[in-house]
Design goal:
alpha/beta, 465 residues, 12% strand, 20 helices, single chain
Length: 465
């Protein structure tokens, strides 16, 4: 069989079989990923966009048929080969035959698998024409949404569903640092306009006076200082996606101009007299409550409803704790690659502290912390003492929360005493951590403050209290 290239995902909890399939498929020139559960398999499928999925019907967490149903929504173009060692599935196999390329009953010969591979990857050999390459996947591999929680998986599925429909307006909401930018880029990369441009605009950085020129462009001489014709953000995104980050920051006086464009997809440059038709998908994101802003008169209701055609809400990290350690590991790999380091991971104590933190800055805060730890590391695993005092505070408060609540029943004075003890403990832990960081940088307070992510004045205050 001729060698082929492509990505294959094996979803099977039999590790020996998964290893055998990986070796065989790798020798054929394929990139192979494996998952031992349905949830892990669906998460990898969303990240890798495999051409072929080898799916076991009996998985430890869900039925393979349920996984197949989700795959058909998540990756409608992916091919699936069913693997099973249980004859009682024969009726189910007959029912799904039209939805899969083939099914293999264990034990099977690898030659039988090669036949399925030829049907999927060997169109040139058996049909005379190559299977069309999916558009817009060139940069897709660099975009990965990490997480195994139900919320993360549901988000992946929703993004894929909206992407394939070609919806023109999507509104992404969520706290700062949750990954709204990544969700927008995935919507673009997985959608019908993936080969077009992706133009990201920080709306808070566009002044009210320059809004029209920045968004819609201007003609030469259109206003004082316009020495040349210039395309605006909207025309730059023609055929692709315009990402409006922090859309709630657009001045109220400018919102009607954006609404007018959304209604008819036409623009007119400042100083111009000709309407220009464009084809742009608008993906807006905000960490603000736009409904509340509408009620306060700070955001137009008609613009809100026009943007909110397909809403996506990203859950804060504290509400999906299952994702924290996988994200930390991913950020560690990223930082190791960026700085040429080989930090092997986190100690169990450090992992417990990381997992118990509330991460008010969400994924961005976690990534920044891990990056700083990798920069400072000498190559050893990251220990609990390497982490900032705030993580100790979260862990102590979490561990003592139920105790303090119980003490309140015994009297307000006793509960207050417990709170003072906790506060004193946290202050001492904070001071010890700061002194350790200062020792690492030979007493340089400016460098220590930078490492701790606080100002020099705050550092001085913490040392004197």
């Amino acid at each position: 069989m001729a060698e082929h290239t492509g990505t294959i995902l094996v979803i099977d909890d039999n590790r020996d079989l998964a290893k055998l399939l990986t070796q065989h498929l790798s020798s054929r020139g394929f990139t192979v990923a494996t998952a031992a559960s349905g949830a892990a398999g669906l998460a990898l499928a969303a990240d890798l966009d495999p051409r072929l999925i080898l799916l076991d019907l009996r998985l430890p967490d869900m039925s393979g048929l349920d996984v197949l149903g989700r795959i058909r929504v998540l990756l409608p173009a992916a091919e699936v080969v069913i693997i099973t060692g249980y004859p009682e599935f024969s009726s189910a196999l007959a029912a799904i035959k039209g939805r899969v390329v083939d099914y293999l009953c264990k034990p099977f010969r690898l030659g039988a698998l090669d036949g399925a591979l030829t049907r999927v990857f060997g169109a040139a050999e058996i049909g005379g024409t190559e299977r069309p390459v999916r558009e817009g996947r060139a940069g897709r591999a660099a975009l990965r949404m990490v997480g195994t929680s139900d919320a993360s998986l549901a988000l992946r599925v929703l993004i894929r569903q909206l992407a394939v429909t070609g919806v023109r307006a999507v509104l992404i909401t969520g706290e700062s640092g949750t990954g709204k930018d990544l969700a927008a880029r995935l919507l673009h990369a997985d959608g019908q306009r993936a080969d077009g441009p992706f133009i990201a605009v920080n709306c808070s950085a566009v002044s009210e006076t320059l809004f029209e020129s920045e968004f819609f462009g201007h003609e030469r001489g259109g206003f004082t200082g316009a020495v040349a014709t210039r395309r605006g953000f909207v025309q730059m995104a023609d055929g692709g996606t315009l990402f409006l980050d922090e859309v709630g920051e657009i001045p109220l006086s400018c919102q009607a101009k954006l609404l007018r464009f959304l209604d008819d997809q036409t623009l007119m440059r400042v100083g111009g007299g000709q309407s220009i038709q464009v084809d742009v998908q608008i993906v807006a994101a905000t960490s603000r409550d736009l409904r509340a802003m509408v009620a306060q008169g700070a955001f137009r209701s008609d613009l809100f409803f026009r943007l909110n055609v397909a809403p996506i809400e990203i859950t804060p990290l504290r509400e999906r704790p299952q994702d924290i350690l996988p994200l930390a590991a991913f950020c560690l790999d990223e930082a190791n690659a960026r700085y040429g380091k080989r930090v092997p991971g986190f100690t169990p104590e450090a992992e417990r502290l990381i997992e118990s933190s509330r991460w008010p800055g969400n994924v961005r805060e976690l990534r920044n912390l891990v990056e700083r730890l990798v920069i400072l590391s000498m190559g050893a695993p990251i220990e609990a003492r390497d982490l900032p005092a705030e993580l100790f505070a979260d862990a102590v408060v979490s561990a003592l929360g139920s105790h303090v609540a119980a003490m309140s029943a015994a009297g307000a004075a006793s509960a207050a005493r417990s709170r003072r003890e906790v506060t004193t403990s946290l202050s001492e832990a904070n001071r010890a951590h700061i002194l350790e960081v200062l020792a690492r940088v030979n007493g340089n307070k400016t460098q220590a403050a930078k490492m701790l992510g606080i100002s020099r004045q705050t550092l001085r205050s913490k040392l004197t209290t």
